[in-house]
Design goal:
Elements (H helix, E strand, L loop, with lengths): L6 E10 L6 E11 L4 E5 L6 H8 L7 E6 L2 E5 L2 E2 L3 H8 E4 L11 H10 L5 H14 L15 H13 L5 E5 L7 H18 L2 E5 L11 E6 L2 E4 L8
Parallel strand pairs: 3-9, 3-10, 7-8, 8-9
Antiparallel strand pairs: 1-2, 1-4, 4-5, 5-6, 10-11
Helix pairs in contact: 3-4, 3-5, 4-5, 5-6
Bound molecules: adenosine-5'-diphosphate and magnesium ion.
Adenosine-5'-diphosphate binds next to strand 2 and helix 1.
């Protein structure tokens, strides 16, 4: 149905600072993700994984290189080729290591606001928020503020929020770092399910090697360079 790639990055390079303090955090990082494909990105701390993910997520533009989403050029180096905020709200779900929920909104309202910002009516947004929280097993916590939720519950509410607008791209930066391995696996499996059901492209930065079997493709990043993980490629 969709003959475009979900995500394509073309030689993304990111330089932080200048002169003596210059850091090249990402070097010509290229990746292609098909609709429905779930990608893991591994690599040591400081290798550039968050820099890459936030570039794809249109949060932290690259110094050079291009980002295409659904076949459309959205970033050309640091230059936006569309309204990035609007595009992000409509097409992308981003999940951070910490849940990043709005502290003065309860779990339901945190999900609901993502829908309303995207044009849903209050009633429809409320119903859909409850459906999502139910799907993620936290409907009974809908009325609780983030500070009253466990780390796992917060993260599941954050996942509900990220999935609310049925994004075609889902990006997660160490989303299970605060979860036990069982809950972590559940969250990873959920990404795979959503990707396959909605034809979304998914990139998950993770350190958790126990859940790697759910991924279609595994890349590793080292010193700003991304390459397919050879050991994980099955012999044809
Ligand atoms: N805002 C910034 N300013 C300067 N250097 C940064 C900034 N963000 C990240 N870096 C540097 O870029 C490199 C890659 O960082 P990062 O993308 O956070 O790696 P990872 O997510 O793999 O741990 C590191 O050397 C880090 O110190
Ligand atoms: Mg990081």
């Amino acid at each position: 149905m969709n003959d475009h790639l979900a995500i394509e990055t073309d030689k993304l390079t990111k330089v932080y600072g200048s002169g003596n303090t210059e850091v090249v955090a990402m070097r010509e990082a290229s990746m292609r993700v098909r609709p429905g494909e779930v990608v893991a990105l591994l690599g040591p701390s400081g290798s550039g994984k968050s820099t890459f993910l936030t570039a794809v997520g249109l949060i932290n533009p690259p110094t050079s290189g291009r980002v295409f989403i659904g076949g459309r050029l959205v970033l050309d180096g640091p230059h936006a080729r569309t309204n990035l905020g609007k595009f992000r709200r409509r097409h992308m779900g981003f999940i951070f290591q910490k849940s990043n929920l709005i502290p003065f909104l309860n779990a339901r309202e945190n999900v609901q606001i993502a829908l309303q910002l995207n044009g849903a009516t209050t009633g429809a947004a409320r119903r859909r928020a409850m459906e999502l929280l139910d799907y993620l097993g936290v409907a009974d916590r809908a009325g609780n503020y983030p500070s009253m939720l466990s780390g796992g519950q917060q993260q599941r509410a954050a996942v509900a929020r990220a999935l609310a607008n049925e994004p075609s791209v889902i990006l997660a930066d160490e989303p299970t770092a605060a979860l036990d391995s069982h809950r972590g696996r559940q969250v990873m499996e959920l990404f795979a399910k959503v990707a396959h059901e909605n034809d979304a492209g998914v990139i998950v930065v993770t350190h958790d090697h126990r859940a790697l079997d759910i991924f279609d493709t595994i890349y590793e990043m080292e010193d700003g360079v991304i390459r397919p993980m050879q050991s994980a490629v099955p012999s044809a």
